[in-house]
Amino acid sequence: MFRTNSSNLRRSLRAGLLALGLLAGLGLPEAGMAGTTYPLTLENCGAKVVINHAPQRVVSIGQAQTEILYALGLGDRVVASALWFSPVAKPYEAVNAKVKRLADNDPSFEAVVGQEPDLVVAMYEWHIGPNGIIGKRSRFDAVKVPVYVSPTDCVGKDNSGAGDGVRTQMYTTELLYRNIREFGAIFDVSDRAETLIAELKAREAAAVRAVAGLKAKNLSMAVWFSSKDIKGDAFLAGKNGVPAYLMAEIGARNIITTEEEWPLVGWETIAASNPDVLVLVKMDRRRFPADAIEAKLNFLKTDPVASQLAAVKNNRIVIVDVGATRPGMDTVDGLEAIATAVQGFGLSH
Amino acid sequence: MSHLVVGPNWPARIAVAGLAAIALVLAVALAVSVGEMPIPLSVALKALGNGLFDLGFPVGAIQQGVIFEYRLSRALMAALCGGALALSGAILQALLRNPLAEPYILGVSAGASTGAVCVMILGLGGATLGVSGGAFLGSVAALGLVGLLAAGAGGASDRVILAGVAGSQLFNAATATIVTTLASAEQARGVMFWLLGNFGGVRWPDLWVAAPVALAGFVICMVHAKALDAFAFGADAAASLGIAVTRVRLVLLATTALLTATMVAIVGTVGFVGLVIPHAARFLVGPGHARLLPACLVIGAVFMILADVLSRILVPQQILPIGVVTALVGAPAFAIILHRARRKA
């Protein structure tokens, strides 16, 4: 059993490093880092976005986006936030306390534009996009508010159907870095953006290096998010989502090969593949009985089939926070957690 | 319409019953031997022997578990659920004199979703009740309300249906209100998904609940077979034949409701079986309930077992909701019934 409680520590470290980077960079624009020239035109999720000046009043819909803004030291520009899956990361508690929360989940269109934002950033197209429940982009165009949706949700991803969408290409952290870089340009803080990206990339590389011996092992893995019924079929990570990227990065093989983000898979199928390592997702959500990590572990110990799986018998179970399974800076925490765990199982040599 | 001729001669009856039993056994055998994990038939038989009679054959623990704990319990649950829903559909179609009546017409499904949401989102009853318990209580609450509405409206069959519609709408609205105001972003998108029928979580203890309920329900319905035949000519005609109309109607409505609520609580909502199978059974054995009810039980059971097998193997690695599979068959059949109903009207 391997638990990761170090993500907050890492986040503190990240904030500290960033502060150092910012202090170092105060008043000294880095060589080769030109400031943004406005109006700035961006191609964003199939739309053209024009930013006329560095935004001062941002409404951020989506925890990952909000935390990136905080990490870039832009907390004072965020006038309101919405869509929180978990409590805000520790280093940002103070800045977040000053930011109005429109809704834990989906804010209404009027609540968003009522803040008189000069920029709205969203994590998901299902909030602002062709089928956006808050509104289509045209609705925001009509009130002259530019919208930036995270490229992590629309590049190589089809959101035209229902549900969580279908990724046609595997997610990569390059999309996250593009998001951070574009924030850098929008807010004219490119130097901070590059510092943050460099730090995240270095951590990614270190985690991958630590398990470099794994590729040759053909280690199989599955990531279990939750189940509608604790004894029933399980939502496992599909072949192209964030967890699939994590598995590919450390050189493990995802037993699931379907394109859906979280396909529903029977335990017989899981038993047929008998993965070497099982990754369980920990979350605060309590929609399904299997959302609770204790329920997952208890099922694995007591079910007549699941208890016989190689990963369960050999105690090769990794627990990662739900943030690691979604696009955002926490993806890197997830990568580190899984790599560290696999090292602990003695599988990477 | 061709009917299977089953006269009062016992040998023929026994032969038909034997055929039905063979069909059931074959369906279960198919369900046990088909799945994502390739298991040779000989191993499957040994695993069954171990599970049923403790014969101690050497079978791998995973294979033993997959055959006995997963596939067999699931197939038997599908049989009970399909049989119970088809039986309930046949009873309701007779009582309400409406060919489009189906088990969820009295608000059972809507009530179940409200009950499930109360447990999942509001945390009512928490761990003691569980989602299934919440669904069952929600079903019973919806039935109680629909019963009161129907009784208040005079209890005629069209009023019962209207009361069911009103009750369903009310409970669906309650569910939607709870979901949109209290659920988190992810909860709101997944609650209704839970209600889609699913046999994946079935284990033996569920059968110890479902089997007695299904069998008791079947016996109660069979006792009333003659009365149901009389209802075909309307409540007044049934009363003139000496049938205690109100009592019979109450007993049978309560029976079908509890059958349906039990199945919804264990496996969720599975559409079309309760609507379509009774019509298929009437094509085969005619409208007499003494033959129709057992036919519904067997055909419903076999249909549901086969639908569940399809749901497990149609898409590699993934489970299709059983409701999708039954609807693929059920929707065209439904259209035919609608068409026939229109011609009669």
Give an account of the 3D structure:
The complex is a heterodimer of chains A (349) and B (345). Chain A has 12 helices and 16 strands. With 349 residues, chain A is of the alpha/beta class. In chain A, the strands form 4 sheets. In chain A, strands 1, 11, 12, 13, 14, 15 and 16 form a 7-stranded mixed beta sheet that branches. In chain A, strands 6-5-4-7-8 form a 5-stranded parallel beta sheet. In chain A, strands 2-3 form a two-stranded antiparallel ribbon. In chain A, helix 6 runs antiparallel to helix 7 (190-210) and helix 7 (190-210) packs parallel to helix 12. Mean pLDDT of chain A is 89; it is low at 20-31. Chain B contains 14 helices and no strands. In chain B, helix 3 (61-95) runs antiparallel to helix 11, helix 3 packs across helix 13 and helix 5 (126-152) packs antiparallel against helix 6. Chain B is globular, with a radius of gyration of 21 Å. Chains A and B meet through strand 14 and helix 9 of A and helix 3 and helix 7 of B.
Put the structure in a nutshell.
The complex is a heterodimer of chains A (349) and B (345). Chain A contains twelve helices and 16 strands.
How are the SSEs placed, and which strands pair?
The complex is a heterodimer of chains A (349) and B (345).
Chain A: E1 2-3, H1 7-25, E2 40-44, E3 47-51, E4 58-61, H2 63-71, E5 78-82, H3 93-97, E6 100-103, H4 109-113, E7 119-122, H5 137-142, E8 147-149, E9 157-158, E10 166-167, H6 173-187, H7 190-210, E11 220-227, E12 234-236, H8 242-250, E13 253-254, E14 264-265, H9 267-273, E15 277-282, H10 293-302, H11 310-313, E16 317-321, H12 330-344
Parallel strand pairs in A: 1-16, 4-5, 4-7, 5-6, 7-8, 11-13, 11-15, 15-16
Antiparallel strand pairs in A: 2-3, 9-10, 11-12, 12-14
Chain B: H1 10-33, H2 41-53, H3 61-95, H4 108-122, H5 126-152, H6 157-182, H7 185-195, H8 204-223, H9 225-231, H10 235-240, H11 245-267, H12 273-285, H13 289-313, H14 322-344
Helix pairs in contact in B: 1-3, 1-13, 2-3, 3-8, 3-11, 3-12, 3-13, 4-5, 4-6, 4-7, 5-6, 5-11, 8-11, 12-13, 12-14, 13-14
